[in-house]
Amino acid sequence: MSSVLVARIGAWFGRNLPKRETFERIRWLRPVAHLVLLPRLWRFHRRSVPRGVALGILVGVLIPVAQTVFAALLALPARANVPVAALTTFITNPFTTPPIWVGAYWLGSWMLRVDALTESRPLETQMQSEAGGWLLWLTSTAAPALAIGLFVIAVVGASIGYLLASFGWRWWTARKWRTRPTMRSQVSAPRLEA
Predict the structure, then answer these.
(1) Is the distance from CB of 92 to CB of 100 less than 8 angstroms?
(2) 75, 36 in Cβ contact below 8 A?
């Protein structure tokens, strides 16, 4: 059962990982395409894959537009795997972005103690009572709370993603070594000829 699941996950990654040709066609990357398309950034190994996962989560949470392009550009100094970084940016999508932003706002307002700064009223009550004051609220308290919350979520998520990718890589490598035929079974015993 687990080998079927691993095969399906591998097939899904094979279909959805961005190809080098995709990045060659991106107009914004043409000035630096020779750097982003370096073969060492497209190889899968134990250091580049976790870096790519961490970079993709960081870019996916912090940058709202052109995430794949930014992940590809930042993969060069980070020496991260470009396809993994680009694919991991899709952790934020139309279904996950609203919960992430709401959680980031709550986390940021808790860290900044925003409710304590308002005039003895909770922030939600103040928002509802002031008609048209939502713009003032957004610029005064919501933006810093959201920014701090997004930063914390991005850093913690990238750290967890890096650790999970590292452990996943080790598990996958150990699994491959366990299923590998031993040398004794491959080499037949020499025959004694009379």
Answers:
(1) yes
(2) yes
What is the number of other CB atoms lying within 10 angstroms of the CB of residue 15? 7
How far apart CA 126 and CA 137 sit, in angstroms, is 9
List the structure tokens of 125.
């009550």
Global confidence as pTM: 0.66
Q: How far is CA 134 from the centre of its chain?
A: 32
Q: Specify the pLDDT at position 124.
A: 53
Cβ-in-10-Å burial (0-12, 13-18, 19+) of 48 comes to buried
Cα distances (angstroms) measured from residue 117 to each of 110, 122, 167: 11, 9, 43
pLDDT in tens, 18-48: 676 777 777 776 777 666 676 666 777 788 8
